[in-house]
Write a structure and sequence with these properties.
By secondary structure, the protein is an alpha/beta fold. The chain is built from twelve helices and ten strands. It is 48% helix and 17% strand. The strands form two sheets. Strands 1-2-3-4-5-8-9-10 form an eight-stranded parallel beta barrel, surrounded by nine helices. A two-stranded antiparallel ribbon has the order 6-7. Bound molecules: zinc ion.
Amino acid sequence: MLVSAKEMLDKAKAGHYAVGQFNINNLEWTKAILLTAQENNSPVILGVSEGAGKYMCGYKTVVGMVNGMLEELNITVPVALHLDHGSYEGCLKCIEAGFSSIMFDGSHYPIEENIAKTKELVAIVKEKGMSLEAEVGAIGGEEDGVIGAGECADPNECKMIADLGIDFLAAGIGNIHGKYPENWQGLSFDTLDAIQKLTGDMPLVLHGGTGIPADMIKKAIDLGVSKINVNTECQLAFAAATREYIEAGKDLQGKGFDPRKVLAPGFDAIKATVKDKMELFGSVNKA
Ligand SMILES: [Zn+2]
């Protein structure tokens, strides 16, 4: 059964580790992440962007697939199904469809409007026993066509949003979605520290986890990050493994064209990537 992400992230915050959010794109992605979480006895959050939700034929299809897998694969570790960077309307759809957690990304609204809409969603989500992530300060890079400038959030605005009754908070601290450019300045630990001091026990979320050096990840966890989002890294691993299979001509040998064979190396690559991240984040054996 899907669970809210609140309890797993409160535990992570108290235990000084982080839970990974891994975004899903299809059946193989979902199965790879769930099996890896179970094998490593780790809690896990499955992230679904609005674009990926559409690609997978809508949120109801996603909920049906994930719930089916939890049962058929005997998954017993805590699993949350979470809308990633949701619009207000997207959040309402996911609540209706049976997600267990949502992120409302109101970072592009003026702070007053972000607060008003977040408040409305807090009330709905509380009643359903779901968890809610809010965002302050746009996160750089591109997420489903939404381009953020990569700013650092204002710690006082973070405190205002954190006080609304949300469960965890994403704040821009110089992180970027996708691949990091050569001239990236690194994470702003001063900003993170200031946000952490004002928001206290609130679990903080680090988006754009792909390519952040391990020592920065560890320091971010020390400073209060309890959820780290990984998306691009699984995509790169899947693509590289698939390319290798095709370039080796394996699809031309015997029944190598069978989709279950074509997709197998990419599936294994996602599993290896997720395991690496769970070890780095410290969530292994924390289920
Ligand atoms: Zn993000």
